[in-house]
Write a structure and sequence with these properties.
600 residues, alpha/beta, 6-stranded antiparallel β-sheet, globular, binds alpha-D-glucopyranuronic acid
Length: 600
């Protein structure tokens, strides 16, 4: 084989190297970007829709050096440039493209985003380009130069770009691709709309050269001591780090060694709990850098089939939520939309929410924490992903790491979920057991869970014996009695048994209804039918001794391309207790009454 040929083949293969094998190692995710000085790049971005990835590959399917990321402009009338961002469509960031443009409603593929901005880096400053989320694959270019990539639609990523910035005018280009692929996480089939785009905010974050990049501050497992660590970027051994919690009159100093300073503080904080979601201002200082966060302190553990919050048994009265915006639909893009969803959960009498099936925005998590909601946070290891594919595992592990990295200081998050409704099998068991152990390595203060739909028919009714039950601390069960199996009237008498002395959460239960459609309780899609499903399933759950909570499916109707039924679904999963236009269905009140009257 001629040498030149082998180089070309190598180039070809390297272009397919999974995108999360970073060309440029992005530094640890900056913690608590809300508290950082930053410039927003939100707003209108120019876009080019590129189904054939013509802006990336040449006609030989080889990556080009002069693709659309160069944002080239004609220099002379005879120049041939067959794209121009400045005359192309525009779209809002943050936001999905599907609900912003009729022609992109079903679109899955590449869209190029371009944003001009004016910025001049100051001396002794580092600048990070930070994306809160891009679905699904992102290749990022600054001033025409490739700076990195990211895979996964629901977790943040950043690039330190200080030396890539120009004085004044700069432009960033992002190749976004939400094509579904078998090896992806999630894989090709999911029961939610594959909203594409730069779906969450984009920032230019400024820090001093030597700065606090990351920290973990929580109650030590099984004690009331507050302990943690702080990582200092560009710090030197011996540098001082100061941690202060004024309200607790605590101020401690620690010293940096190998970029990290650890500490432990004897304290008796008021513990965070739903009825009193107490948060403390915590300030960290080192050199010229200072950052303040609001942090709650609590412990969570299990005892047999009980979940203990701060050592006391707690029952999780919950609801599942998708990141679908109320009223406008599409991806949630604002704090107001988060608050509307959370306010509805409050009205329902909930003290707990399951954020499905992927990490929701940091804003949603922080707002929920302030409102006293305990949280189940999950990565989209959903249905039949490729459990024997090592790249798929690396991808899932990366999303897990980013989820835990971003939210590890949120007291409200009690559980990390590593999967939803995955089929039993050896490869799956290894895959998920490894993920669960990875999660424990990253964070040993929370519970690990997964939502199963593998319950079997036993003598005494439903039997929970999935081997994955061994690897988790809390077992989530998805079961649709009265909807996918059996008639609603049958559910009250269904019994449950478990091979595990562990807490069970009914992570999904429920049925569909079109708001405003009425009829008998045996007529599908009527509110009466859905209400009956709730009535009888609540009966069933009352009899499950080892039940420590539930998160019925789901708070609000949400878009899914698996739901085409005309005049009823219209591309929406109708299992919401509230329609996407905010109309409460009868079942909303059934569940509310159960929560308000019981388990208080
Ligand atoms: C499953 C799944 C959900 C889905 C729901 C449904 O249990 O976990 O993602 O939307 O069932 O069928 O409505």
């Amino acid at each position: 084989m001629k040498p030149i040929k082998s180089v070309l083949i190598l180039l070809f293969i390297s272009s397919f190297t999974p995108l999360f094998a970073q060309e440029r190692e992005f530094s640890d995710l900056l913690q608590n970007i809300d508290a950082r000085e930053k410039v927003s790049l939100n707003g209108l971005w120019d876009i080019i829709i590129d189904p054939l990835e013509n802006g990336y590959y040449n006609h030989r399917l080889q990556p080009m050096d002069n693709g659309y990321f160069k944002n080239a402009k004609m220099q002379s009338p005879s120049d041939l440039i067959e794209y121009n961002f400045d005359t192309s469509d525009q779209i809002m960031v943050p936001g999905d493209w599907n609900t912003q443009m009729e022609k992109l409603y079903y679109y899955e593929g590449t869209v190029w985003y371009k944003k001009d901005f004016n910025y001049t880096a100051k001396t002794n400053e580092l600048v990070y380009l930070y994306f809160e989320a891009v679905n699904y694959e992102a290749i990022v270019y600054l001033n025409g130069e490739r700076i990195g990539t990211h895979t996964g639609g629901y977790t943040p990523f950043q690039f330190e770009v200080t030396d890539k910035l120009k004085e004044g005018d700069n432009f960033v280009v992002v190749k976004v691709d939400n094509k579904r692929k078998r090896e992806n996480v999630p894989t090709v089939n999911q029961d939610w709309w594959n909203y594409g785009g730069i779906t969450r905010s984009v920032h230019l974050i400024s820090t001093p050269k030597t700065h606090i990049s990351d920290y973990s501050i929580q109650l030590a497992k099984g004690s009331t001591n507050i302990q943690g660590w702080v990582t200092v970027e560009n710090g030197s051994d011996g540098d001082n780090v100061e941690i202060s919690i004024p309200e607790l009159r605590k101020n401690v100093k620690s010293v940096v060694k190998n970029g990290k300073a650890s500490f432990s503080i004897k304290a008796k904080p008021t513990l965070w709990e739903p009825k009193n979601p107490k948060l403390y201002e915590v300030t960290i200082k080192t050199g010229t850098d200072e950052i303040t966060d609001t942090i709650g302190f609590r412990t969570v553990s299990t005892q047999g089939s009980k979940i203990l919050l701060n050592g006391k048994e707690i029952f999780l009265k919950g609801i599942s939520i998708h990141e679908e915006a109320p009223f406008k639909t599409g991806r949630v893009t604002s704090k107001e939309e988060c608050r509307i969803l959370l306010q509805w959960a409050k009205e329902l009498g909930c003290n707990y929410i399951r954020l499905a099936h992927y990490p929701h925005s940091e804003t949603m998590v922080r707002e929920a924490e302030k409102m006293g909601f305990m949280i189940w946070s999950e990565i989209p290891v959903y249905w039949t992903i490729l459990f024997d594919n090592k790249d798929t595992y690396a991808n899932a592990k990366n999303q897990l790491t980013e989820m835990i990295s971003r939210d590890k200081n949120r007291a409200a998050i009690l559980m990390w979920s590593v999967a939803n409704e995955t089929p039993e099998g050896e490869a799956r068991l290894d895959f998920l057991t490894n993920l669960a152990n990875e999660a424990r390595k990253l964070d040993n203060t929370r519970l690990i869970t997964a939502a199963l739909d593998t319950q079997s028919e036993g003598e005494g009714g439903k039997m929970i014996e999935d081997p994955l039950g061994k690897a988790v601390d809390v077992i989530g069960i998805n079961h649709y009695c009265g909807w996918y199996v059996d008639k609603p009237q049958k559910c009250s008498s269904v019994k449950w048994a478990s091979a595990y002395d562990k807490p069970m959460i009914m992570s999904e239960v429920g049925g569909g209804a079109l708001y405003g459609l009425h009829g008998s309780k045996n007529e599908r899609w009527t509110e009466e039918y859905q209400a009956e499903v709730y009535r009888t399933n609540i009966e069933m759950m009352r009899n499950i001794e080892f039940l420590s909570g539930l998160s019925p499916w789901i708070l609000m109707d949400f878009r899914s391309s698996r739901r085409p039924l005309k005049r009823i679904q219209e591309d929406f999963n109708r299992k919401g207790l509230i329609s996407e236009q905010g109309m409460k269905k009868q079942a909303f009140y059934i569940l509310r009454d159960y929560y308000l009257k019981e388990n208080n």
